[in-house]
Amino acid sequence: RIRESQIALGEGILGQCMLEKELVLLKDVPPDYVKITSGLGEATPRNVVVSPLLFNGEFYGVVELIAFEQLKPHHIEFIREVCQSIAAEISSLQGVARTEKLLSESNLLAERLKAREGELNHHLETISSTQQEMARKQAELAGTIHAIDGTLATANFDLDGNFIGANEIFLRVLGYDLKSLIGKHIGQIT
Question: pLDDT tens digit string along 58-77?
Fold first, then answer.
């Protein structure tokens, strides 16, 4: 029968086992310690063994065993090994649970990353489309400027009104040499 209660570190035999993390063997069990009842009757146990569940120095719990007969050293050693195996299994199960949790978190992060990747791809497509449209408009503008430059006389001035350049038509129609105009103010050109 499993009894659920909390035992403080160092309290009673179980608490002592928890505190010291060592097997406790009672050979002289007090008559009022516990009675074992079965179909054959009721009896006081001859030995009580309380063994910690330890694996790789990690404490996982305590097992209490009661025996009608005196336990021999090989029985005690067997109990130690079984308790270590139980602790190893608990450790393994906890490791699996941690791994499952981490895997779940990893999958959630992967889903979020995939969603963000989709958003980023959409933004990149939009940027690419905008860049293509800008390149098309620049090509149109360059074509227009080239057409203007090939049919009209054009001159270029800086913000202060100083001459900085002209096309061949301007120079030919007005009879100027490019070198003689560079740096002249617009008011000096007639």
Answer: 989 899 888 888 889 999 99
The structure's pTM equals 0.55
Is residue 103 left, alpha or beta, with left meaning phi > 0 and alpha meaning psi from -120 to 50?
alpha
Helix (H) or strand (E) holding 59: strand 58-67
Task: Characterise 136 by phi-psi region: left (phi > 0), alpha (psi -120 to 50), beta (else).
Answer: alpha
What pLDDT digit, counting tens, does each position of 36-61 carry? 777 777 777 888 899 999 999 898 98
Where b means 16+ CB within 10 Å and e means fewer, 73-82 reads eeeeeebeee
Short-list 176, 169, 172, 167, CA closest to 189: 176
φ, ψ of residue 29 to 5 degrees: the values are: -80, 125
Is residue 31 within 8 A of residue 44, CB to CB? The reply is: yes
Give the span between the Cα atoms of 116 and 119, in whole angstroms: 5
DSSP states of 63-79? EEEEESSPPPHHHHHHH
Residue 155 CB-half CA count within 13 A? 22
